């Protein structure tokens, strides 16, 4: 056996092993172990052929942020040097391809906020929701009893024709008076709002009832069922505090069916509508838009900038000086 040579030169730590199949001018990966604090980003995003480089970078940055971090246009413009216009265009690209969703919601105190939802794999999310919907439909079908299939109709045997007899005139008999049975009382229908404008605050109010009483933890299906009656209360001028007080005051010590109790109270305690002087035709307001300059929600027929961002910078500065004086 050969003797061990202790003075042999050591191999380089980052030696690039070349093979006949490797392109010598391409990229070579040097992968190191990373401590906690990294983000897994799929190749479907980093190698997306329809997204711009800024959109891909913003999506990776948003996925690396903790839950609840602000990702509005103003905050992103302070973090990156591209400017508000390019960042707003990149966010719209992510919304178009399903990596981002911005939902406008109204809080209990009436403020309108924007909730940003980031999807790290939109295709997988859509497939999972489709499977859950199919499983839910299959479960409901299995619970319902199968309907019996109608059998073949029996063939009627033709009866023999009776001999020709001269018909006698019918005798008129007085019919006894019919006594109309009193039908069982049907429950009154649940109130429905005239417009869906109050559906979002009504759903938020129902979802927050769990903070008043843990027994009022409602499912998504129950919230969808009770949202129209609560919206009818708000449409008739009742405040959210009044609706919450009517639903949570005087609850029984044993509450087995909270959804049925809330539906009964919403139907029986429904306030009357406010009197109107003259009926006027309801005009639908313009849809809500997100400002490309300050990410503020405003109403306009088309997306763009709000009134403050459209005002020239000189006029805004002069107005700020006058206010300071």
Keyword list:
single chain; 325 residues; mainly alpha; Arc Repressor Mutant, subunit A; two-stranded antiparallel ribbon; two-stranded antiparallel sheet; 6% strand
What do you see in this structure?
- With 325 residues, the chain is mostly helical.
- Among the domains are: 43-118, Arc Repressor Mutant, subunit A (Orthogonal Bundle); 196-268, no CATH class.
- It has helices spanning 43-46, 53-63, 73-79, 84-96, 122-143, 199-207, 220-235, 240-248, 258-268, 307-310, 313-324, and strands at residues 100-106, 112-118, 288-290, 297-299.
- Helix 2 (53-63) crosses helix 4 and helix 7 runs parallel beside helix 9.
- The protein is extended and about 125 Å long.
Give the helices and strands, then pairings.
Layout: H1 43-46, H2 53-63, H3 73-79, H4 84-96, E1 100-106, E2 112-118, H5 122-143, H6 199-207, H7 220-235, H8 240-248, H9 258-268, E3 288-290, E4 297-299, H10 307-310, H11 313-324
Antiparallel strand pairs: 1-2, 3-4
Helix pairs in contact: 2-4, 6-7, 7-9
